[in-house]
Amino acid sequence: MTFKSDIEIAQEAKPRNILEIAEKVGIDEEYVDLYGKYKAKIDYNVLKKSKGNTAKMVLVTAINPTPAGEGKTTTTIGTADALSRLGKKTIVALREPSLGPVFGVKGGAAGGGYAQVIPMEDINLHFTGDLHAIGAANNLLAAMIDNHIQQGNALDIDVRRIVWRRALDMNDRQLRNIISGLGGLGNGIPREDGFDITVASEVMAAFCLSSDIINLKEKMAKIVVAYNRSGEPVTAGQINAQGAMAALLKDALKPNLVQTLEGTPAFIHGGPFANIAHGCNSLMATNMARHFAEYVVTEAGFGADLGAEKFIDIKCRQAGFKPDAVIIVATVRALKHNGGVAKADLNNENLVALEKGLPNLLKHVENITRVFGLPAVVAINKFPLDTDAELKLVEEKCKELGVNVALSEVWEKGGAGGEALAKEVIRLVEKGENQFKFAYSDELSIKEKIEAIATKIYGADGVDFTGKAQKEMANLEKLGFGKLPICMAKTQYSLTDDPKVFGRPQGFRITASKMTVSAGAGFIVVSTGDIMKMPGLPKVPSSEKIDVDENGVISGLF
Questions:
Q1: φ/ψ (deg, to 5) at 350
Q2: Portion of the chain with pLDDT greater than 70, in percent
Q3: What is the pTM of this model?
Q4: Shortest CA distance to 42 belongs to which of 23, 22, 25, 17?
Q5: SS3 219
Q6: Theoretical Cys-Cys bridge with 52: which of 124, 223, 291, 522, CB 3.0 to 4.6 Å?
Q7: Can you tell me the distance from the alpha carbon of 263 to that of 13, in angstroms, rounded to the nearest whole number?
Q8: Rounded CA gap, 507 and 428, in Å?
Q9: Cα dihedral sign for 145, 151, 157, 159?
Q10: Beta bridge partners of 510
Q11: Annotated active-site positions, please?
C-alpha cells in the first residue's frame, strides 16, 4: 500500500476561508486580523465583549517518547475532529512549531496523515511571526543589559553573574557559548555569553502564561537578568525594558486561528519546550478556546511526567482551571521499544517485549488517575501491523487500573477514526468523576516540592542535590522565591534523568544539579541530567530534504 506524505495530503486539502472558521464559533469579523485567506490572529479584546462559554477541557498527553513515535498531536487533532463530527462545538489548542526541530530531526507540530492543521507549511515555517517577535523581545532585553553596563552600570551589575542569554529560533550548537564585547572600548565589556533556542527563553514561558497585555508587561518586569555585586537580583523592570518588550509582543499575544483538514477551528499559539520549560500552548489561546467552544482539546509536550505534570502543577495552578478528562496516547510499537525491541524489529509481534514495556504506560496512567485524580482513557494510535493479541494485552492491563482503551485510527481516517475515542471522552466528562488535585501544595519548601515530583510522578526513591543546587536553593528561599511552583528540566525519554533507561524503572534516584528562578514566568527551573537549551542539528538534518519549486510549492516537509 502506498501512503501519501503529510505535506501531499495537506496540499490537496481545500480549506475554508478563515472568516468562515471564525464565524463557526461565533467570533465577529471585527476581531479577526487576517494573515491571508487561511490564517488570522484574534484580538484578545473579544474576551471583554461577551461572557462566552466555559468549555469542557480535554488534555492529551502520552508515554515517554521513543523513536517509534506516539502521534500525540495527530491524536489531539483527530479527537477534536471526531468531537465535531459527534455534534460538539469543539476547538483544538496547540503549540506553535519551532524552526529548530523542523529543520533538525523531530519534525513539525501540525499533526499527520488525515489529522492535520493547515496550512501546514505556513504553520511550520514562520507562521505569523510570533517566535521572531519573542526572539526580538528577548534580544532587546539582552542589548539593554549590556548597554546599561556600558553607560556606567548604575545598578552595579556583576558581569560574571549575568544570567540572561540571547535567543535564536534555530538549532545552532556553535552559539551555545560565546565571548561577546570584543573589539575595544566602544564595543562593550568583553564577557562570556551565549544563545538559547527561542522556545527555551523565559520570554516564551512568561508570554504563554500571561492572561492579558498588562499581565504580560508585569511578567516581563519580574524577569531576573543578573545579580549585582552584593548578590541581589537585578530585574528587567530595573532596566526599564518591560514596556518596549511588551510593545514588541503586542500583536504576537493575539492567538492564531487556523483549521484542521475537516474544518475544526484550531488555535495555535506559543511553544515552550516541555523538557526545559512548561510545554503548553498559551494561556491566552486556551482561555479564548474555552470562551467560544463546548469542548477544548489541548495537549502538553512529551510524556505525562513532563508536559502533563507542568500543565497541571504550573499552568492550571496559575490559571485557576482544570482538565475534565485526559487522553494518554501510546502505540504498541513504542511500548515494545520500551520493552527492549530495536526499531528495525518493531513490526513483528512480540508479546513478551510488549508486556515488559507496558509498565511505562501504566505509570503514566497512575499519575493521571491517582496522583492528579483525573478521569482518563488510553488511546492506542493504531499501526497496520499491530496484532489483535497485542492490542488485547494493552486493553487488559489498562482495565486492571480501571481505565478503558480506545483505538485511534485518525492518521488514516481523520475524525471518523477517532469517534470511539471521542465517545469515551464524552462519557468520562459527563460522568463527572473528577477528584482533581495538584502533586504538591504551594506551602511546601522548594526541596519538598522537588521530592514530591520525583517520588510521586517519576517513581524515584528520592532526590540527591549537588552542592551547587543546595546553595542555589538556599539563596532562592532567602530571596523570597520559595513559594513558586517547580519546573523540572529533565530528559523526555525516561522517567529517570538518564535518557537510556526505558520502561518503568525501580530503585533509582534523581539528581538535581542546578536551580534558577524564572520569576517572570512564575516558576523555579530545576535541572537534572544533561539538558541543553540550544540543540544542535543531527548528522542528516531534515533541512537537507526540504525544497521549493518555481511555483513556490514546498516539498520534503514531512
A1: -155, 85
A2: 98
A3: 0.95
A4: 22
A5: helix
A6: 291
A7: 10
A8: 34
A9: positive
A10: 463
A11: 72, 74, 95, 106, 274, 302, 383, 411
